[in-house]
Design brief:
The complex is a heterodimer.
Chain A: E1 40-49, E2 52-62, E3 67-71, H1 78-85, E4 93-98, E5 101-104, H2 111-120, E6 121-124, H3 136-146, H4 152-165, H5 181-193, E7 199-203, H6 211-226, E8 230-234, H7 238-243, E9 247-252, E10 255-261, H8 262-267, H9 272-282
Parallel strand pairs in A: 3-8, 3-9, 6-7, 7-8
Antiparallel strand pairs in A: 1-2, 1-4, 4-5, 9-10
Helix pairs in contact in A: 3-4, 3-5, 4-5, 5-6
Chain B: H1 2-9, H2 12-37, H3 42-57, H4 60-74, H5 80-105, H6 109-117, H7 121-152, H8 164-175, H9 178-208
Helix pairs in contact in B: 1-8, 1-9, 2-3, 2-5, 3-5, 4-5, 5-7, 6-7, 7-9, 8-9
Classes of the chains: A alpha/beta, B mainly alpha.
């Protein structure tokens, strides 16, 4: 444990309340991710379903601690790319290297590598996907006991720390259905963090939430980014992409059309496709 | 009157025992058949699919006769009750397998995704995440099926299982009073079915909240 996501260092997440408002867009203070060894490297990753190409020639390098936002129109392959990174959808071509684990498309991954990959990568879904028949606490503890081999006591203790971190310690014994969407998503984040991942993937984490509930999830994500977690976030939240992420990646039709530092891509996009997308998002009336 | 009711009631333990035994077989053996039905191995899948289709296509009465008169006389000596348990157990297995399959299909795909990214593995995914929810979804159909099975066991009277309908039939033939004897039997079937239906409905209401669909 390198103390990456230790609890209690960042007590600034409001307990169960939305953050101060739309003006909280200041970029988090953190060391710039230097051009050292990238944590994730995608080399010519592609995905096909039969004759239908969803992704092609995706090259990407993510530095440790970097926050990458993936934006783009629906059906552009953003979610598929995210699901390829942790092999939820095995890619059809290319290689993925993540923290020393190298997986090559076309070959079935070694079981050991797949287990290691899943341990290194946490994932948060648009539809939360909490286990509805378990309490919030059990949701966060289950994988710790089954996968990380922690005892019930150790797991519950860690879960309570994480639930406190996302401002939901008081919901530990509720069932997910009794929680709002925003609370459920924060539980899902705690559940993913419980296995101490090196990377967190977010698949449109606020798309199923109404705007106010989305804010409380974004606040947790902002805190996580500030703590140095490596994150890849598929999102339609343009302010998050601009203000919290370091890099923005614009996808359309299964390819990356543009990528670069967030402020640059969001304010001065070079590609016409990016401009068209950002106009559609920003100039709505 | 009381004497007649008691005479018919003497068959109730057999009706209940036959229903319970067949259902227990179905509840247990239905699990591997349902899993086989979802298998990616073609022979396994095919065997399960054929078993389910064939078993459910044959009427319970014909199954009873096949097992009792077919197997029973030719090869091995089996009692009417054992033959009836085997027949209804077989049918219950096929039906419970289909009910479980429906329960598994009703589970939102995100549950599998979540279990997979947490690295739970096949066994824990099934035991901790999928099965508890599938059971909840299956419960109402299983209860309806149990009530149907309870009534189907009446056909076991034809091979001499001394259950409710058998007793009612005996009484009817002694008194020449079909309406009276079978009326009593009908009332007993109703009195047994209603609590089961009620229990299932309240259990379903209670459990429904805890399933992702």
């Amino acid at each position: 444990m390198e103390g990456r996501c230790e609890v209690n260092e960042e007590p600034n997440v409001p307990a169960d309340a939305a953050p101060t408002g739309p003006g909280t867009g200041a970029p988090p203070m953190k060391a710039e991710a230097g051009p050292g060894r990238p944590l994730i490297v995608l080399d010519k990753v592609g995905k096909q379903y039969g004759a239908h190409t969803v992704l092609s020639g995706i090259d990407l390098a993510v530095q440790p601690g970097a926050v990458t936002a993936i934006i783009g129109p629906s059906g552009s392959g953003k979610s598929t790319l995210l699901r390829c990174i942790n092999y939820l959808e095995p890619p059809s071509s290319g290689t993925i290297t993540l923290d020393g684990i190298r997986l090559e498309a076309g070959k079935p991954p070694a079981r050991r590598d797949l287990v290691a990959l899943r341990r290194s990568v946490g994932m948060v879904f648009q539809s939360f996907n909490l286990f509805p028949h378990m309490s919030v606490l059990r949701n966060v503890s289950l994988a710790q006991e089954r996968v990380a081999g922690r005892s019930r006591r150790e797991a519950d203790e860690r879960s309570m720390q994480l639930l406190a971190r996302v401002g939901l310690a008081d919901k530990a014994h509720q069932y997910p259905q009794r929680c709002s969407g925003g609370q459920q998503q924060r539980v899902a984040i705690a559940r993913a963090l419980a296995l101490d991942p090196k990377v967190m993937l977010f698949d449109e984490p606020t798309s199923a939430l109404d705007p106010e509930l989305g804010l409380e999830v974004l606040a947790v994500m902002r805190e996580l980014a500030g703590s140095g977690m490596t994150m890849i976030v598929v999102t339609h939240e343009m302010r998050f992409a601009e203000n919290v992420s370091d890099t923005v990646l614009v996808m359309a039709d299964g390819v990356i059309v543009e990528q670069g530092p967030s402020a640059e891509v969001m304010r001065n996009p070079r590609q016409e496709r990016t401009r068209r997308f950002l106009r559609a998002v920003n100039d709505r009336t | 009157m009381t004497g007649d009711v008691l005479t018919i009631l003497a068959g109730l333990p057999w009706t209940l025992a036959l229903t319970a035994a067949a259902l227990a077989l179905g509840v247990v053996l239905g699990v591997p058949v349902a899993l086989a039905r979802r298998s990616r191995l073609l022979p396994v899948w095919l065997a399960a699919a054929v078993f389910i289709a064939v078993t459910r296509s044959i009427p319970p009465l014909v199954w009873l006769f096949i097992i009792f008169f077919g197997l029973g006389t030719g090869y091995i000596q089996i009692s009417p009750f054992v033959a009836a348990t085997a027949a209804f157990g077989l049918i219950a297995t096929a039906n419970m397998a289909e009910i479980y399959r429906g329960g598994l299909m009703a589970i939102q795909h995100g549950q599998w995704d979540a279990a997979e990214v947490l690295g739970l593995g096949r066994i824990h995914t099934f035991a901790d995440v999928i099965a508890p929810q599938a059971v909840r979804v299956s419960l109402p159909s299983a209860a309806s099926y149990a009530i149907g099975l309870l009534k189907d066991t009446a056909t076991a009277s034809t091979i001499g299982v001394i259950e409710l309908t058998f007793q009612a039939n005996q009484l009817a033939q002694r008194n020449f009073s079909g309406l009276y004897a079978f009326g009593i039997a009908a009332a007993i079937y109703i009195l047994v079915s209603l609590p089961v239906a009620w229990l299932a409905r309240s259990a379903d209401f209670y459990l429904r909240a805890k399933v992702a669909r």
